[in-house]
Design goal:
The protein is 31% helix and 17% strand. The chain contains five helices and seven strands, in the order H-E-E-E-H-E-H-E-H-E-E-H. The longest helix has 29 residues. It is globular. It starts with 7 loop residues before the first helix and ends in a 17-residue tail after the last helix. The mean pLDDT is 96.
Length: 216
């Protein structure tokens, strides 16, 4: 492949990059295959009772379309003056893809603030496709690492499965808690986040000190 007026130096460097991209794609597929082959995770200790805009709802009832539930822990606790800007950016993108995800898995966003506050914020962001619930009054956040021992909220992604009426944990984005490598941050949900994937294509990249804001 060639583009107009490119130099031989550019083409040689781009061909080397293409080899690296192919290797990365293979590695991503290998990791996804390893994830799919995980043995059964631990049984969920209780059928957590959440609050939703439709009224009380248990974790088991969030499996509306099938046997897989993807659950994102949204950093928005009652003590927080504002919602997390990084979570907000992530959910802005997830909202646009929610209807597509729903063809293969159920999706829910779980925050600790009262449901009225969560829904008010969602309306302001235009999140019309996300199922949002409040975990206030439950131990869900702490049990599934959406909260640390001091009560600080964490942006954890968890996947649950239902089999024979039993709920089990399948996967958690534990990279969030893994030792950080220099310049890497946690980057535990980056592959699901359009923002960083697009910026990584640019000459400037994502930068080292820029983060999304609630408004610009």
């Amino acid at each position: 492949m060639n583009f107009p007026n490119e130099s031989p130096q550019y083409r040689a460097a781009r061909d080397e990059l293409l080899k690296a991209e192919l290797a990365l794609r293979r590695q991503i597929e290998q990791v996804a295959a390893m994830r799919r082959q995980l043995p059964e995770g631990g049984e969920v200790p209780e059928d957590y009772a959440f609050a939703s805009a439709r009224g009380p709802v248990k974790l088991s009832a969030l499996f509306e379309r099938g046997n897989t539930l993807v659950a994102y822990s949204f950093m928005y606790a009652p003590s927080m003056r504002e919602a997390c800007p990084m979570c907000t950016s992530f959910l802005d993108g997830l909202n646009g893809n929610a209807q597509h995800i729903a063809q293969r898995a159920d999706l829910v966003v779980i925050a600790k603030s009262p449901i009225e506050r969560v829904m008010e914020y969602a309306r302001g962001r235009g999140w019309t496709n996300l199922r949002l619930v409040s975990s206030a009054g439950t131990t869900y956040n702490r049990d599934y690492h959406g909260e640390d021992e001091k009560g600080a909220q964490m942006p954890m992604m968890n996947v649950f499965v239902k089999k024979d009426a039993r709920l089990r944990h399948f996967y958690g984005s534990e990279l969030l808690y893994a030792p950080e490598e220099k310049g890497q941050n946690a980057r535990h949900n980056d592959l699901m986040w359009p923002l960083w994937n697009v910026l990584d294509l640019t000459p400037e990249g994502r930068g080292s000190d820029w983060y999304p804001k609630l408004a610009y």
